[in-house]
Design goal:
The protein folds into three domains: about 300 residues, alpha-galactosidase from lactobacil brevis (Beta-galactosidase, Chain A, domain 5, Distorted Sandwich), CATH 2.70.98; about 300 residues, TIM Barrel (Alpha-Beta Barrel); about 80 residues, Sandwich (Immunoglobulin-like), CATH 2.60.40.1180. Strands 6, 7, 8, 9, 12, 13, 15, 16, 20 and 21 form a ten-stranded antiparallel beta sheet that branches. The protein is globular. By secondary structure, the chain is an alpha+beta fold. α8 links the parallel β27 and β28. The chain contains 13 helices and 37 strands. Pfam families: Glyco_hydro_36C, Glyco_hydro_36N, Melibiase. Its EC number is 3.2.1.22. This is Alpha-galactosidase. Belongs to the glycosyl hydrolase.
């Protein structure tokens, strides 16, 4: 709901549990008033205080507090909007020109505040969208050049966010690297500016475009938390600042420093959504709110139940042929797998990562009749058929590169740096994007492909676009826009197609790519122990319904660690269960246990994929790592727990289970034991973890009818 007070100029955005208030001040600038618990318009008016004139202070305007801080005047903080006009001048002065309120879809309302620069014909719109079923507020900015000369957007953030004055500020975010993504950090927000960014052309393994702030006193279950997430899959930057006068805020959007967006006469630029959320109930409540929002309003089919998949990579590597894939498919089907995915190595001259990328036709020596016979065999076994692709990449040793060396990102006269023996195709070019769409839609249609694992295995380098007007700056956003366009066209052509986003693991996971895909590969690291920490960080914002996780062989290819099969399964069951081991080498006992655990997952996956998630303990401490998933009506729940070698004498502490129906009783489906909800919530469940290293358990509880 959106309301307005003409007497005070206050706009009030109301969500189910929070309010967001702003007004246009005496200078014409949009200024923040409040973001927190719900207010009425009259209550919001009580927040009005006279704006101190910049001329009365040596410091100038406060560095936080505006809805979109601009470059110009007596502003000295990080600008959200920084422009350069044709005459070389910069700055922006707000001049309000109107507003609009409309309903873009049932259950949602959008406010658009319209401005222009006082000197140049540059128009700016601030968009705010609220929905009836979530506290998430979606914000973005639209800029239009109404003049007859080019304007350069040196910085065009989607939004800036301001916190109320708090006694302290703590920043939560994730860092990492390839195979060690999503490592959660919680630290005091330093004074000055803290920059989180990716300069790699992708969301990156090293940071993710979300953050959470609190007063330093929030826990998993208690305290107020403010958080934001950017829906963009290219380079990005978020700058948080803590000012000497005790305030904090942040600004964020697409692009990194040193690049600009050229805006030609009559051209319009729309920034990606930068969504924000204020919650009470600690970090857990914030995560659950983001999960619910993503399932309802981001994923194309968030309510759909994902299949159990098998992927051939760790079993075969590049040694892929029709006979071996059919043999693996038969074993996968016997385990209860529902989706069989052929990974790298099926096309062109692909025998290693040195050649073949770009030549997307089945290797005739390995698939003499194409992929049709394998697809038919997989479907005949009752499974869907999937395949790995990497459309944005090319090996220099490929027919495609020999025909189109100009299609890659490059700067004339400069070295074309290779990573993983490959170069990046310039998806900012319409002909490249159209080429990719063409072979992809034929591949899917001609071979009855149900699922694409879409990979992207390296960062940008020599990011040039020779011959295009301002191409070196335009490519950063045009690349992502065209990538989105290819995905959108594919899904429109093939409504039954499902897509997994992958970028050397978790290098491209964000709300922008999840709006066009169905799930994400969180990391190339399949070690079940390492995965507990990766999945803990991943789940701070992104729901388990999007997190693909595999059971692979031991010793693990990356870490050399050996843990029991059950532990590996229980770890992967915390998301979308997949299997990636070499089934031809599994023993009869392992195959039997695997089939049993696949069947067990199918009975509870609706809870993992669509239930509310509660992180009951931190990962990999002296106590077990415990996660709970519970149905919306609390009729059943799943508890997963992992323990890695407790020290002798470590006390066994019961785990308290939240969100149960008060006064109800719950039956353990494995043991038949009946538990009282009050006991489980107030006194806890004593987990039956086997003794020894790397033990795990899954407890499925179902609420009993009142008469039982």
């Amino acid at each position: 709901m959106i309301s307005f007070s003409p007497d005070t100029g206050i706009w009030l955005l109301t969500t189910p549990h929070t309010s967001y208030a702003l007004r246009i001040d005496e200078t014409g600038a949009p200024r923040h008033l409040a973001w927190g618990p719900r207010l009425t318009l009259r209550e919001a008016e009580g927040l009005l205080v006279p704006v101190e004139s910049a001329g009365d202070s040596f410091e100038g305007l406060p560095p936080v507090g505006e809805e979109l801080p601009v470059d110009g005047g007596t502003r000295f903080g990080p600008p959200s909007l920084q422009v350069r006009y044709a005459d070389g001048s910069r700055a922006f002065e707000w001049e309000p020109v109107g507003h609009r309120v409309h309903e873009p879809a049932p259950g949602s309302t959008q406010l658009v505040l319209e401005f222009r620069d006082r000197v140049h014909p540059l128009f700016v719109e601030l968009h705010y969208r609220v929905r009836e079923d979530t506290d998430v507020i979606e914000r973005r900015t639209v800029l239009r050049n109404a003049g007859d000369q080019r304007v350069d957007l040196l910085r065009a953030d989607s939004a800036a966010w301001t916190l109320p004055a708090l006694p302290d500020y703590r920043l939560s975010h994730v860092t990492g690297q390839w195979s060690a993504e999503s490592q959660l950090r919680r630290d005091a927000l330093p004074y000055g500016e803290t920059v989180l960014t990716s300069r790699r052309g992708i969301t990156s393994h090293h940071a993710n475009p979300w953050l959470m702030l609190d007063a330093g006193d929030a826990t998993e279950d208690h305290g107020r938390v403010w958080s934001t997430a950017l829906a963009w899959s290219g380079t990005w930057r978020v700058t948080a600042q803590r000012t000497p006068d005790g305030r904090a805020g942040w600004t964020g959007g697409a692009g990194h420093e040193g690049t600009s967006v050229p805006l030609a006469p009559g051209e319009e630029h729309t920034t990606p959504v930068f969504a924000g959320l204020c919650t009470d109930g600690g970090f857990g409540a914030a995560s659950r709110a983001w999960h619910a929002y993503t399932l309802a309003h981001v994923l194309p089919r968030g309510r759909e139940t994902a299949a159990v998949l098998y992927n051939s990579w760790e079993a075969t590597g590049f040694d892929v042929d029709e006979a071996s894939q059919k043999a693996l498919a038969e074993r996968a089907a016997a385990l209860g797998v529902e989706l069989y995915v052929v990974d790298d190595g099926w096309f062109g001259s692909r025998r290693s990562d040195r050649a073949g990328l770009g030549d997307w036709t089945p290797a005739p020596g390995r698939f003499p009749d194409g992929l049709g016979p394998l697809s038919e065999a997989v479907h005949g076994l009752g499974m869907r058929f999937g395949i790995w692709v990497e459309p944005e990449m090319v090996n220099p040793d490929s027919d495609l590169y020999r025909a189109h060396p100009d299609w890659v990102l490059h700067i004339p006269g400069r070295t074309r740096s290779e990573l993983r023996n490959q170069l990046v195709l310039n998806f900012a070019r319409a002909d490249v994007a159209d080429w990719a769409y063409g072979w992809l839609t034929r591949l899917v249609g001609d071979h009855a492909v149900d699922f694409l694992k879409w990979d992207m295995n390296r960062a940008f380098s020599e990011a040039g676009w020779p011959g295009a007007d301002q191409g070196d700056d335009r490519l950063w956003s045009a690349y992502v826009t065209n990538l989105y366009g290819v995905l959108d066209r594919l899904r429109a052509d093939h409504p039954g197609l499902r897509i997994e986003t992958c970028s050397g693991g978790g290098g491209r996971v964000d709300l922008g790519i999840l709006a066009r895909t169905d799930q994400a590969w969180a990391s190339d690291n399949t070690d079940a122990v390492d995965r507990l920490a990766i999945q803990h960080g991943y789940g701070q914002v992104y729901p388990a319904r999007t997190m693909s996780a595999w059971v692979t062989d031991v010793p693990n290819q990356l870490t050399g660690r050996t843990v029991p099969l059950r532990f590996r399964f229980h770890c992967a069951m915390a998301g979308l269960l997949g299997i990636g081991g070499d089934l031809t080498r599994w023993s009869r006992e392992e195959l039997a246990e695997g089939a049993e655990l696949v069947a067990e997952y199918k009975k509870v996956r609706h809870l993992v994929q669509h239930g509310a998630q509660y992180r009951l303990t931190e990962p990999l401490g002296d106590r077990p790592t415990v996660v709970q998933y519970i149905a919306e009506d609390a009729a059943e729940l799943l508890v997963l727990a992992w323990q890695y070698g407790p020290r002798h004498g470590t006390p066994r502490i019961p785990v308290r289970l939240p969100a149960l129906t008060p006064g109800a009783r719950y039956r353990d489906t494995r043991t038949g034991t009946v538990h009282h909800a009050t006991v489980l919530t107030e006194y806890g469940l004593l987990l039956d973890l086997p003794r020894g290293d790397w033990s795990s358990t899954a407890v499925h509880l179902v609420r009993l009818p009142d008469s039982d």
